[in-house]
Amino acid sequence: MYRFEVHQVKKPLEGEVQISGAKNAVLAVMAAALLAEGVSEITNVPHLKDMKTMSDVLRIIGCRISGEAHQLKIDTRGADHLEAPYELVKTMRASFYVLGPLVARFGRCRVSLPGGCAWGPRPVDLHLKGLEALGAKINLTRGYVEATCEGRLPGGTFNFPISSVGATVNVLMAATLAKGTSVLQNAALEPEIDNLVDYLVSMGAKIQGRGTRTLTVQGVESLRPGKGYTIPDRIEAGTYLCGAAITRGCVKVTKIIPEHIASTLDAFREMGCKVDVGNDWAQVDARGMELKPISISTLPFPGFPTDMQAPLMATLVSVPGNSLIQDTVYNDRFKHVAELQRMGANIQVNGNTATIKGGTKLEGTEIMGSDLRATAALVLAALVAEGESTVSRVYHLDRGYEDFENKMAKIGGVVIRHSDDEDDDAF
Ligand code: UD1
Predict the structure, then answer these.
(1) Which of 14, 88, 269, 283 has a CA positioned 20 to 30 A from the CA of residue 422?
(2) Helices 335-342 and 372-384, axial angle in degrees (round to 10)
(3) Do 184 and 46 belong to one domain?
């Protein structure tokens, strides 16, 4: 187990950070490799704990995984154990992505239900209803989903009642090998879905409607191993830009797709930061500025992402005046609030809305991460809190930020990793 020692910045963060591949995009593509027999390749893969967990899930199924220098090879020729166990699915919900590909290709599988997560219940009912609409038989028994179909899935139409990234991923993957044509209505628009569509098309899948709410998939009998490139991580980019705003510095994130972070950049503009954008970079400059409070709601893409909610909240704590953040995607995603309050932040939560009375002075102390983005938010707050802070449970952060301490160091942030054997996750 590790913890971070985070120093209050002596001067505002300044410099360039190169953004890594998006873990959420890779996780879907890794699962999609199961749709074909042979060796698939994925590039721009970040070195992160979640990639290791998904590799472990695929290994249990019988795949061989190898990789070097941000490339991953997945050999599915040995895939014959059609099961994803609780131990792995509970540590990473995206393990549930193997459900769609396995039932579509092999006609049966058994995958653990993920259960809740740090910010409340996160159902998978839409994954299951969508697969049923394609013709899969779903049986829930002893905490596991057993999915079966006779021969190939027939295919079908499913209208997602709410926008769901994960359910779109699972149902889309399954539809590629169906006998007939499937129509996914109100599919998620997140860039990670487009990235998956590109990969599936490289495998020979027939998909129309990329980038729209309606995906039409003409099923094919078999797919070939694919070659996939991973889009840059829009949330990692947004987090470092928060680092610029909270310290009143200037940070440029490179190797990004600016359209993917448009709503995040709009939030910085509204706060009064100077935002510059190029072909594959964006810069937030808050040097010497008095920033303004804002009101914002999280929404599915292209709206402001729920994954940016915690880092933005930490940032708004530094901005005098009343800011409002409403999370309409995950109503309970406020575990970071209590820790920010312990540092001196004035935040009140009412239902799915947090009111931040910004401008209070933060004090460095011992704080604990509760999930990936909450932990990033605490590190950001610690950068401007008086003195030093200790952030424990940084294994959450390690799930989604590649090379975090070094990237922070490049822009002037002092984040030192310590091993801490006593920091266990027993409660
Ligand atoms: C993905 C991201 C996560 C991000 C989230 C929202 C991955 C691996 N994770 O999670 O980082 O915070 O999108 O952008 O890509 N819902 C249901 N039933 C379902 C599925 C979802 O009711 O079967 C609800 C959820 O509770 C939530 C909303 O739909 O309120 C959106 O969730 P969803 O887009 O599915 O999130 P994930 O795919 O789990």
Answers:
(1) 88
(2) 20
(3) yes
Q: What CA–CA distance (Å, rounded) separates 37 from 206?
A: 18
| Residue 190 CA, ligand 1 centroid: distance in Å | 11
User: Quick one: which atom of ligand 1 is closest to the CA of 190?
Assistant: 14
Same-domain check for residues 371 and 275: yes
**Per annotation, catalytic residue among 63, 117, 250, 273:** 117
Q: Considering 212, 229, 246, which residue would you say is the last residue of a domain?
A: 229
pLDDT score, position 423: 46
E-strand spans in 209-313?
Answer: 215-218, 227-229, 250-254, 274-277, 281-285, 295-298
Q: Which residues contact 12 (CB under 8 A, 6 or more apart)?
A: 244, 247, 248, 249, 250, 286, 287, 412
Q: Tell me if 45 sits within 8 A of 26, measured CB to CB.
A: yes
For ligand 1, atom 3, the nearest C-alpha belongs to: 307
The reply to whether 117 belongs to the active site is yes
Residue-wise pLDDT for 80-129, tens only, equals 999 999 999 999 999 999 999 999 999 999 999 997 667 666 899 999 99
- Read off the pTM: 0.96
Sequence-ordered strand ranges (E) for 136-186:
137-141, 144-148, 157-159, 181-185
Take atom 35 of ligand 1 and give the residue whose Cα is closest: 164
pLDDT one-digit tens code per residue, 297-311: 999 999 999 999 999
- Total domains in the chain come to 2
In a domain, 255, yes or no: yes
| 360 Cα: distance to centroid of ligand 1 (angstroms) | 33
| Nearest CA residue ID for atom 32, ligand 1 | 164
Q: Among candidates 262, 265, 259, which has minimal Cα distance to 241?
A: 265
**Domain with 381 in it:** 2-20+232-419
Q: Which residues line ligand 1 (CB under 6 A)?
A: 24, 27, 93-94, 122-127, 162, 164-167, 192, 305-307, 329-330
Q: Give the CATH number for residue 354.
A: 3.65.10.10
Percentage of residues of the chain with pLDDT beyond 90: 94
